[in-house]
C-alpha cells in the first residue's frame, strides 16, 4: 500500500470516493434493510419480517421486486461518495499539515527532526475533525436518503395526524396501524417536505449526533492500524494483500460500529419521518431514553446485525479499491516524472 503522506490530498480523496462508490453500490440493499429495521414501527409488536435482516429483505422483494432493494440508491451514492471524498481530503490535508511543519517552525527547531507519523491522539483528532467537516456538507443528502428509504403511509394516517401533533417523543410506533412503504419521491419533493416539516435547518436534522459519530471513521482507522500491527508480520504491514486489507478493515469497522451503534440508531431515528407526519423525537437524549423505556437496553442495538453486514463489507471494499487507485496514482506520477526527466 502506498505511503499516504506521499500522495496529495486530492488523490487520496478521489481514491476514497471511488472506493465508496463501488462499495456502496454493492452493499446498498443491506443499507436499505438496515434503515428499515431501525425505523420499523412493527418492532414493538415482534414482527419478524420487520426486525430481522432476512425478513426485511424478503418483504421488500415480495412487495417491490429486486428493484425495490435499490430505492434511494442514487441519492445515497451521491451522499456517500461526496462524504468520503471530503473526509479523505480533509484528513489528508490535516495529516500533511501536522507531519510537515511550516518553514518558520522548521528553521527554529532544526535540532529536532520533523514528525513522520501522528500519535494515536492526533490520528483520532484528525479523523474526527475531517468527519465533522464532511458531515456538515452532506447531512442534508443523508436526510433525503433516509426519507427515500422509508417513504411510507399509514392506513390510519389521516385519523391519527391530529392526535400525533404535540405528542413528540411518546412513541415511534402505533399498535393500530400498519406502515406501507411506497415508491421513492423525487429529491426536490423530499427537500420541500423536510423544509415544510422542520424549516431549513431541518435539512441538518441529526447533525449534532453526526458530529459525535464523526469519531467513527477515525476510530475505525485507529483500530485497523492496531489490528495490522498485532496480526501482520512487520514485512507485510506496508504492503498488505487485498485480502488482508479487506479483512483488517472489515474487522476494524465491526469493532467501531459495535461500540458506537446506539448513536447510529439515534441519528437514523432523528432523520426518520413518521407516517402520520409527526416529529417523533426531540433529540439524542429523548431517543435513548424513549428506546430504553420501551425496549430496554437491547433496543439500542436494534438492527445491529444488518448494520454490521453492511459496514464490514462496504468499508473492506472501500479500502481495497482505495489502495489500488492510490497505487495507480503513484505509478502515473512516477511515470510522468520519468518522462519529464527524459525530455530535459
TrEMBL record:
Task: Provide the alphabetized UniProt keywords.
Answer: Membrane, Repeat, Transmembrane, Transmembrane helix, Transport
Please give the start and end residues of each transmembrane region.
201-223, 243-266
Membrane topology listed for this record:
Multi-pass membrane protein
Biased composition range(s): Low complexity: 101-111
Q: Its GO CC terms?
A: membrane
Q: Which Pfam families match?
A: Mito_carr
**Which InterPro entries is this protein grouped with?**
MCP_dom_sf, MCP_transmembrane, Mito/Peroxisomal_Carrier
Could you confirm whether the keyword Protein biosynthesis appears in this record? no
Gene3D superfamilies listed in its UniProt record: Mitochondrial carrier domain
List the biased-composition ranges (Polar residues): 144-157
Q: Where are the Solcar repeats?
A: 7-97, 118-230, 244-328
Name the Gene Ontology molecular function terms of this record.
ADP transmembrane transporter activity
Region described as Disordered: 101-121, 144-182
Entry similarity comment: Belongs to the mitochondrial carrier (TC 2.A.29) family.
The protein, known as: Mitochondrial carrier
| Organism per entry | Jaminaea rosea
